[in-house]
Amino acid sequence: MKPSVASVLAQQLKRWGVDHVFGVPGKAIVPLILELGNHGVKYVLSRHEAGAGFSAGGYAYMKRSLGVALGTSGPGGTNLITAAGQAKVYHVPLLIITGHASMRETGKGLGQDSTFFGADLVEMFRSVTLFSARLERGDMLRTYLAHAVEKAMTGVRGPVHLLIPRDVMLEEIEPFELELPDPTPHMVSDRVQEMLPLLNEAKRPVLFLGKGVHLSRAYEEVGWLAERWDLPVMTTPGGKGSFPSRHPLSLGAYGLGGTPEAGEYMTSGIDLMVVVGTKLSDMSVPVLKPEQYPKNVIHLDVDPTFIGKSLPVPTLFIQGDAKANLRKLMALAGAGEERPSYLEIAAASEAKEIDSEELLNPAIGQDGAHNGGGEQITAKEVMEVLGRTLPDDAIVFGDDGSHSYHALLHLEIRRPGSFLFDDVFACMGHAIGYSVGAKIAAPQKPVICLTGDGCTFMHGAEISTAVNQGAAVIFVILNNGRLDMVNKGMKYNLGRTDGTVFDIPMDARKYAEAMGAEAYSCRTGAEFEDALRQALAESVTAVIEVLVDPEEIPPTMARG
Question: Which of 67, 134, 142, 158 is a Cys-bridge partner for 56, taking CB atoms 3.0 to 4.6 Å apart?
């Protein structure tokens, strides 16, 4: 008797080292769920399919390998589309498997039809994945699975989708084994040597780090690059955490949540901008005017799509893996030419004073009231407590909202790789699931989710998944009773804030307790620090609600 498609697929996942698969069950995918258990792969019951996809993304990121999420037919699949969009901008290798009632009965009236007769999942997933296809026969599994994992794991990595009807899952096929593609990209450009004269001749350069530094784990290499050519370093919002805050060359973040030092330097006449791993979106360069553009750009990235478009200046494109290309540069670099040190220039010159709120938040700056009444703890204070309290090996996943932009400006990075944030797809609540998956993949590592009340209203139910899986994530929820980033943007740019304040705000402590998490509610820095230290010591799923000042202005006004 030959094994079924579901059995062969489950065995293949186990062989690839996929120990956990995330999803919500439904009839169309039950055969695969049962076979996962038969082959020793733990099926993690998520609370929502999007949460399953987020968790699988965090799992893939932490393991540097394939993550897998399951959704049943119809709405189970459509709920995973958002998770696919998020995984695509994180460039994490994610295999999404959805079901369909029956291939043989397709064309008749079917509940949760996932073909073009109903909700056509293959078409829906195409714009947010690198590969989306339907298996219409069992013997297609080997070829389609090979295509899917190759797209997910190599080159511009990201999510892929396979739709497997229930009757196809039950078909018997010849067993096979596939090798998982090497997750480490080895794309090295033949133009690396062209970087040397540009670097050696630059008088006013800057090193601009994006999320791609995290994805390639090129922390050592960008540190060498900065020190070898004495390059001042800025990070995009997504690149926060790729360079230590207290390094002498660090200017901090640029863009939304950026520092005044970074903003001032960027307006001082840059002749060379060395960009690593970012598409230079409007979130990364929102206040850069054409007259402030650098004269030249060296752009290291795996994806050519936006090269030379966001900044239309002469650009040397170094395509491929940032770590591999910088390793090649290290091998090519000689002693170099002497030129004035940035640190010497900075120490010798009198930099003109720039008001940080004027620079980064041009819509404010009139009444000077930036931090509310001062009675409640501010988000800035929360970041200061996190910075001095978290252990060096902790990793913080920043969710999408004002809370993370405060972190960009105020959270100290002691160890590269300790903070992750996405400002491109920017799905509210995604960090909750990413934290759960990351903790399951690396249970020994302290994992913190920095989120807000709005994000928690959207995907906070995955806290229950963490509790049930024994995943000791610490969820820090900044609660100010509103969708703060939109609220402040509307207030200061439009003069009104329709639909941004919760009439009945979240009681995050009660919410967390209802799901079985250890719960705290804090109003002061001392209370927050005590709760954080206790949560770190107890190693259980914990939720720390911090009731922050609702009038504090986030550093996001520059985008308008």
Answer: 67
pLDDT of 264-307, one tens digit each?
Answer: 999 889 999 999 999 998 878 877 888 889 999 999 999 899 99
143: in domain: yes
Residues 165 and 196 in one domain: no
Q: Is residue 515 part of a domain?
A: yes
Do 418 and 307 have their domain in common? no
Span 354-362, average pLDDT: 38
- Is residue 328 domain-shared with residue 207, that is, in the same domain? yes
Spatial distance between the Cα atoms of 194 and 317, rounded to a whole number of angstroms? 10
**Cβ contacts of 428 within 8 Å, gap of 6 or more:** 399, 400, 401, 454, 455, 458, 459
CATH number for the domain harbouring residue 36: 3.40.50.970
Measured between alpha carbons, how far is residue 533 from residues 66, 138, 439, 526 in Å?
33, 53, 18, 11
Residues 523 and 464 in one domain: yes
HEC string of 306-348 equals CCCCCCCCCEEEEECCHHHHHHHHHHHCCCCCCCCCHHHHHHH
Best CA proximity match to 474, nearest among 419, 442, 415, 520:
520
Q: Say whether both 539 and 413 belong to one domain.
A: yes
Whether 434 and 540 map to the same domain: the answer is: yes
What pLDDT is attached to residue 343? 54
User: 110, 166 in Cβ contact below 8 A?
Assistant: no
* Between 340 and 317, residue with greater pLDDT: 317
Q: Which residues pair with 546 in a beta bridge?
A: 478, 522
- Cβ atoms of 437 and 56 closer than 8 Å: yes
**CA pair distance 275, 236, nearest whole angstrom:** 10
The rounded distance, in Å, linking the Cα atoms of 214 and 91 is 10
What's the pLDDT at 248?
95
* Residue 356 in domain: no
- Exposed, middle or buried, 397 (CB in 10 Å: 0-12/13-18/19+)? buried
Residue 303 CA to residue 155 CA, distance in Å, equals 8
Q: Which pTM does this prediction carry? A: 0.91
481 and 413 share one domain: yes
Can you give the pLDDT at residue 371?
A: 43
- Percentage of the chain beyond pLDDT 90 is 80
The answer, yes or no, to whether residue 82 has pLDDT greater than 60, is yes
Range of the domain at 299: 192-334
Total number of domains in the chain: 3
- Indicate if 476 and 524 belong to the same structural domain: yes
- Strand (E) or helix (H) holding 42: strand 42-45
Contacts of residue 253, defined as CB under 8 A and 6 or more positions apart, other chains included, come to: 234, 235, 236, 237, 239, 240, 259, 262, 408, 409
How far is 313 from 338, CA to CA, in rounded Å?
26
For 350, 528, 558, the CA distances from 383, given in Å and listed in that order, are 30, 11, 21
Which residues lie below 8 Å from residue 557, measured CB to CB, with a gap of 6+? 360, 361, 362, 363, 364, 488, 489, 492, 493
On whether the CB atoms of residues 432 and 51 are closer than 8 A, the answer is yes
Q: What are the C-alpha distances in Å from 468 to residues 183, 440, 516?
A: 30, 11, 9
